[in-house]
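ARCHIVE CARD
SHELF: 3
SLOT: left
DATA:
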Amino acid sequence: MKYKLKINNCTCEMGYQLGMCIHDYLKNKNVDKYCISITLYNKEVYRYMSDACIVDNGRWLDRKKNSCLYFGMSTLELFEKNEGNEKNLVQKYGLNHSDYTFTPGSIPIVLENDQVIGACTVSGMKPEEDHQSILDGYALFMSRE
């Protein structure tokens, strides 16, 4: 697992705070269109969609999150591993394309032993910006802990 967010003894409150840190980071960068989802222990503990988002952005959040949790790795790693070939979702893995994607923007949340307990997902910008905003927001979160 190349990209992961390590949070020991992670609580739903910590997940919410992580979401707020990503929100604050993007707001301070004057990004207009973004949405954020934090899922922990099979519960969505944080979800935000800026005014510029549309319903489809929420669907992208769900597709990215589903892929991250199913494979236990970031969607950027999945994208690289599959050379961006979304057909692999159906042909290789037997998944429904409308529910999963290899598009970057979701990173697993893991405990010290690398057990995946959730996913942090961002959508609305370019995929590489979605991915990077998670890493930058996570750094902000860790600096506040």
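SLOT: right
DATA:
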Amino acid sequence: MKRVVVLTGAGISAESGLKTFRDSDGLWEGYDIEEVATPQAWQRNPALVQEFYNMRRKSVIEAQPNAAHYALAQLQDKFDVTIITQNIDDLHERAGSTNVVHLHGIITRSQSSLNPELTYPMEGWELGMNEVCELGSPLRPHVVWFGEPVPMIEKAAAICATADVFILIGTSLAVYPAAGLVDFIPDGVPKYIIDPNIPYVRGANSVIKIEQKATTGVPQVVSELMNQPD
């Protein structure tokens, strides 16, 4: 069974109504990222950070998977599929994808502020400042902030190195280390890039560019792959 590796970014969730991480003015939902998405912000004003992510979590829970998420789940009928996502939402899982690697965490879980390996499922959207982990420290969102290591990056790189087909969706390849994952795709492996603004990827002879939004381009590529002979 061929292995399909998919790397998704904010563009695939934008069509479900979730705003991309950073707008052109450097703000996220009107907030300065330095004030809500760094370890220093948590130290300075944990209540503000908690409130910000509570609002993001509420938006995620209210959002629904779109045609691109559902199309990727269909690939599992024919291929060994791994989705590596930069997104902190759970839309891939809700669409039916079963093998999803979250590079930057997932907002529907909480995490110990002392030990990042201690994570917990959440039932609702609101995380209170009085909620603590088993070590007694406050729970924070299970997301990777700026300035923190990306613990899943080595696993993701190893997965990319085994790809028979690679699909890149809705990312400008501007955020590292995630952007460097494309360099681990073996030479000659077909690389489908689906985005209205195609980013540069080396190995031009094996790149198939689909200059469309995710809900149009992903079903098109999935249909093509599903109809290929084994």
